Amino acid sequence: MKRILFVFSLSFSFQCSMLGVLQDKIPTPQFSFESIQIQQITFTDITLGVETSVSNPYPVSLPSSLLDMDIKIEGLKLSQVKTDLGAIEAKKTKSLPLEVKLKYTDLYQLYKKFPTKQMLEVSAEGNMKVPIPKQWQLLGKDSLTFPFVQKREIPAVLPDVEIQNFKILMPTESEILSASNTESLVGTTTTFLKGLLGGSKTPVTSAAKAGLTGLNLNLKTEFDFVFKNQAASDLNLTDLKYNLQLAGENFLNGSPKEIINGGKESTVKVSNQFPLASIGTSLYKTIQSKEALYQLQGDSGLIVPNLRENIPFSYEKKGKFQWQ
């Protein structure tokens, strides 16, 4: 009896040893979680870019790669991602990028919970499941599961913008004369502009506009875009571009002359000009009324004091403003 047990034990040990050798010889897929980055910040959400890769050592393609991932901020689960990231070709390593959007409507409660915390910890936790082709399976194991945890910090942001200190400057007599090339138009143009820029309620007639046809006069304008972060983080704007529409018409676009960064508030100083002859009827009425429906959009970089990278920032807002 003891001899039988000894032989059985020896046989079992040999089989386990052989399985171990075989397992060492048979290649297995490899998974790598490369990074989690802030791809973009907008007025509605923060987009995270998740970079992973899977290496397929087999001479046949793998049909799928199943990702099951929880997104947590400060340990609180905010969202879950379950997706098939697709097939992986034979003998290839495939990058598997994924975008995750964090909406401010979901983040707002976290901001209230941590009102003074400028940086929040976001973690991606989960598993990547990769199938094993039948001819390379051992002990009936048909897939490999790779657990992962990746963490990084994101700024507490809830950005907004207002247009302030808007004004259109009355040109000087010499500027009007230079633009008209004749003294006879100076008086007519001056009267027209005083009515336009002075808040006159008198409608701008077609005849009045026709009288200014060919007048090569640019009107100067100055105003501020005031960006505010309503959450805790300090933000600095850089390399800002803007496109501003008034009353549905293209008004101005370009770069500001100055950006004054002040922690949670940044003032973008705009000084620009537009040709009087180019504006349409609705914009004439808007300038007269000193009240405008606007659409503002553009791009900038965001530099957060606690982070090294320059984060892409895209903004868009519609609203209404008045000026004196």
From TrEMBL:
Domain Late embryogenesis abundant protein LEA-2 subgroup, chain residue ranges per copy: 53-134
Q: Which Pfam families match?
A: LEA_2
InterPro entries named among the record's database cross-references: Lea14-like (IPR045043), LEA_2 (IPR004864)
> Which superkingdom is the protein from?
Bacteria
| Transmembrane segment boundaries | none
**Stored PANTHER family:** OS03G0843300 PROTEIN (PTHR31459:SF2), PTHR31459
What's the protein name? Answer: Late embryogenesis abundant protein LEA-2 subgroup domain-containing protein
